[in-house]
Design goal:
Blueprint: H1 3-42, H2 49-62, H3 75-85, E1 91-94, E2 101-105, E3 108-112, H4 117-129, E4 132-136, E5 151-154, E6 161-166, H5 170-189, H6 200-220, E7 227-231, H7 238-245, E8 250-254, H8 262-265, H9 271-278, E9 283-286, H10 289-302, E10 306-308, E11 313-316, E12 319-325, H11 343-353, E13 361-368, H12 375-388, E14 396-403, H13 410-430, E15 438-441, H14 447-456, E16 459-462, H15 471-479, E17 486-490, E18 503-505, H16 510-521, H17 525-541, H18 544-568, H19 581-592
Parallel strand pairs: 1-4, 1-7, 4-6, 7-8, 8-9, 9-12, 13-14, 13-16, 14-15, 16-17, 17-18
Antiparallel strand pairs: 2-3, 5-6, 10-11, 11-12
This protein binds 6-O-phosphono-beta-D-fructofuranose.
Length: 593
C-alpha cells in the first residue's frame, strides 16, 4: 500500500472511531436525560414529559427549535438544564448597568432598580442560576455597601446571587460609556439619524475598561470553564480578552441593540477590532435573525473568515462562533403582579395621582428618555388626532414616563428640551379648564410603579424608531391579566415580530399614527380581548427563561462537542482548535462522503 493509501486508511479508522464514540456518548446522554425527565415528571414538576422529550430531542438535533414553546419554561427548567447538561458550571453575567444601585439620600441609603430591559431580563435568570453578576458600580453609596472584595449579596430582601462591582474613574466612564458606547456604537447601530461620534480617546478608554472587566471575570471565575454571559455593546472587546485568559470558558455574548448593515457598520474606525473582539465568543446572540445576518455579513466583508451558513457559524482564527437569534423576553408570570392591586383600583389610583377624570382615556408611554424611542412622534400623532378629530380634545390624556438617561450628552439634552417644549405647546393649544392633554414625568419609576401604570392605561404606545426588541411592549401585555388594553407597536421594534395582534405602526408616519390612535380609542372590549389573549400566550411561552434556556442548551451542546473533539482528535488536531466545532463537522462530512 502506498504512503497516501496508508494515511487515508488511518484517517478513516480515526474518523470511524470518533463517530462510534459520538454515538455512544449521545446514547448515554439521551438515557440520562430521559431518566431525569422521568424523574421530573414523576415529581410533578412543570416540565411536561412527552412534549418536553420531543422538544429537547429537537434541540439536540437542530439547535433552537420552534417547538420549544411546548416546554413550560421556568426558573426550574433553567436549573435543570444547568444540573443535567452543564454540571458544575459557574454562571457569570457581565453588564455595564448593575441590577441594584445604592444611592445616598438625605434619610440614608436608597436602593434603586434601574429602568433597563437588560436588567429586568437578566435578574430572574441570575437568581435562578445563583450566579455572579459583574457590573459597574455607579451609585453614590455603592462603595459603602460592598464587602472587602467589592461584592454584595442581592436581592437585599432575599439574597440569591453575588453582585461584584467594578469601579471606574470619571475619565473611564466618560470615554468608555458616554463616549464610545453611547455616542459611537449606540447611534451607529440604531437607524435614528443621529450621527455617531468616534474619538480615539474614547476608544482607548473603551479598551481599557473592557480589560478591567476581563480581569474581574478571571478573578471571579472559580475554575477554567465558567459560562460567561457578556451583555451588550459596552463590551465588544471583552469576549476576546476573556478567551485569551480562559480558553475553555463558554462565552455567550448577547447584543441587545440592532446590528446595522455592513455599509453602515463600515463607518466605525475600529470595525475590525470590534468584530475580532466579539468573535472571541462561543455564541453571539441577537434579538432577530435579520440582525444576526447583518453581523455575519459584516464579518464576511471585513475579516478573513469562513461563514458556515448552514450551521449558523463563523470560523475565524481557528475557532468557531455560533451566531443565532434568541428573542429576549420577560419573566412569566411577573413576580410583582401578585403585589399589585386589581386593575380597577390601579386605574382609580393613577387618575387620582394625576388629577384625571374617570372617563378620560389614558394613553401611556414608558421608557428611558432616548431619541431612538420615538417620543416626539407620539406627540405628533396626538396632534394629528386632535386636528382631524377635535371631538377627542378633552377626552384623552397622554402620560409619558421618561426615565432620565445619559443626560450629560448633547443629543439627550436636546431631546429632553424638545419634548418639554412640544408637550407645553400641545397643552397650550388643546388644554382648557385644567385639562392638559400631555403629562410628561421625566423621573425614574420603580418596576412596580410602572406595572401599575400599565394596568391603569387604556392604550400603551411603543413607537421606537428602531429597537432591538423593546420589553415595554411585552411588559404591558404581561401586566394586563384582565385581557384589556390596546398596544400600539412600532414595526421597527423587534417585538413586532412576535406581538402580531398589536396595532402595528410606522412612527415616521404621523397621519397614520393619528388614525391608529383613533382605532385604539374606539376599540371594543371584545376586540381588545381577542388581541390581548394571543399576545399574552406568546409572552408566556416565549418568556425570558426560554431565552436563557435556549442559549444554555446551545452552550451545553458546544461543550459536549468540544469535549468530544478533545477525546477523538488528538492525533490529527492542529494547535488551538480545542472547541472548533466546524472542524468536527468537516470530518463528519468527509467520512459521510
Ligand atoms: O437597549 C440597550 C440597553 O443597553 C439596554 O440593554 C438597557 O435597557 C438600556 O440600554 C440601558 O441604558 P443605560 O444603562 O445606558 O441607561
Amino acid at each position: 500500500m502506498t504512503d497516501y493509501g496508508m494515511a487515508l486508511l488511518w484517517v478513516l479508522i480515526l474518523a470511524s472511531l470518533g463517530l462510534s464514540i459520538l454515538a455512544v456518548l449521545l446514547s448515554i446522554s439521551r438515557q440520562r436525560r430521559s431518566h431525569s425527565l422521568t424523574v421530573a415528571s414523576t415529581a410533578g414538576e412543570d416540565v411536561a414529559s412527552e412534549a418536553t422529550r420531543k422538544v429537547l430531542r429537537e434541540f439536540e438535533k437542530n439547535g433552537q427549535s420552534p417547538d420549544a414553546a411546548l416546554v413550560n419554561w421556568s426558573p426550574d427548567t433553567l436549573r435543570k438544564i444547568l444540573a443535567d447538561d452543564l454540571p458544575d458550571a459557574q454562571v457569570i453575567v457581565v453588564s455595564n448597568r448593575e441590577p441594584y444601585i445604592h444611592n445616598i439620600k438625605d434619610d440614608g441609603v436608597e436602593l434603586l432598580v434601574p429602568a433597563s430591559g437588560l436588567v429586568s431580563a437578566l435578574e430572574p435568570i441570575t437568581r435562578a442560576c445563583s450566579g455572579t453578576w459583574i457590573a459597574y458600580g455607579g451609585g453614590s453609596a455603592d462603595r459603602l455597601t460592598v464587602d472587602s472584595n467589592d461584592r454584595v449579596q442581592v436581592p437585599p430582601d432575599n439574597p440569591s446571587y453575588t453582585l461584584r462591582r467594578v469601579w471606574l474613574s470619571d475619565d473611564e466612564y466618560q470615554g468608555y460609556y458616554l463616549g464610545f458606547a453611547n455616542e459611537g456604537l449606540w447611534p451607529l447601530c440604531h437607524i435614528a439619524f443621529t450621527r455617531p461620534v468616534f474619538r480615539a480617546s474614547d476608544w482607548e478608554a473603551y479598551e481599557a475598561v473592557n480589560r478591567k472587566f476581563a480581569d474581574t471575570v478571571v478573578a471571579e471565575a472559580r475554575n477554567e470553564r465558567p459560562i460567561v454571559l457578556v451583555q451588550d455593546y459596552h463590551f465588544a472587546l471583552l469576549p476576546r480578552m476573556i478567551r485569551e485568559r480562559l480558553p475553555e470558558a463558554i462565552i455567550i455574548t448577547f447584543w441587545h441593540i440592532p446590528w446595522p448593515n455592513s455599509e453602515v457598520f463600515s463607518i466605525c474606525p475600529w470595525r475590525e477590532r470590534v468584530l475580532d473582539g466579539l468573535l472571541g465568543s462561543s455564541i453571539i446572540g441577537f434579538h432577530t435573525q435579520f440582525h444576526a445576518n447583518n453581523f455575519t455579513e459584516s464579518v464576511d466583508r471585513f475579516l478573513e473568515s469562513r461563514i458556515e451558513r448552514a450551521d449558523a457559524a463563523i470560523s475565524y482564527g481557528g475557532r468557531a462562533t455560533l451566531v443565532h437569534a434568541y428573542p429576549i423576553s420577560i419573566e412569566w408570570p411577573a413576580e410583582l403582579l401578585a403585589k399589585l392591586p386589581p386593575v380597577e383600583e390601579s386605574r382609580a389610583r393613577l387618575r387620582e395621582r394625576f388629577g384625571l377624570s374617570a372617563d378620560v382615556k389614558l394613553c401611556v408611554g414608558v421608557e428611558r428618555l432616548d431619541y431612538t424611542k420615538g417620543i416626539l412622534d407620539r406627540f405628533h400623532a396626538l396632534d394629528e388626532l386632535f386636528t382631524r378629530h377635535p371631538e377627542w380634545i378633552g377626552k384623552v390624556v397622554f402620560l409619558q414616563i421618561a426615565a432620565p438617561s445619559r443626560g450629560t450628552l448633547p443629543a439627550y439634552q436636546q431631546l429632553h428640551d424638545e419634548c418639554l417644549r412640544y408637550a407645553n405647546e400641545l397643552n397650550q393649544r388643546y388644554g382648557h379648564d385644567g385639562y392638559k392633554p400631555v403629562v410628561m414625568v421625566a423621573e425614574h419609576h420603580s418596576q412596580q410603579q410602572v406595572y401599575e401604570i400599565y394596568r391603569a392605561a387604556d392604550i400603551c404606545m411603543v413607537t421606537s424608531l428602531h429597537d432591538g426588541m423593546n420589553l415595554v411592549a411585552k411588559e404591558f401585555v404581561a401586566a394586563r391579566d384582565d385581557e384589556q388594553g390596546v398596544l400600539l407597536l412600532s414595526t421597527f421594534a423587534g417585538a413586532s415580530r412576535e406581538l402580531l395582534e398589536a396595532l402595528i405602526v410606522n412612527p415616521y408616519d404621523a397621519a397614520m399614527m393619528g388614525q391608529v390612535l383613533l382605532q385604539a380609542l374606539t376599540m371594543s372590549p371584545d376586540e381588545q380581548r381577542e388581541r390581548m389573549r394571543p399576545m399574552r400566550e406568546i409572552v408566556r411561552d416565549n418568556n425570558v427563561f426560554r431565552w436563557a434556556g435556549s442559549m444554555l442548551l446551545d452552550a451545553a451542546r458546544l461543550r459536549k462537542r468540544g469535549d468530544l473533539e478533545r477525546a477523538t482528535s488528538v492525533a490529527e488536531r492542529p494547535a488551538n482548535t480545542d472547541t472548533n466545532i466546524v472542524s468536527l463537522f468537516d470530518r463528519m462530512r468527509k467520512v459521510a462522503s
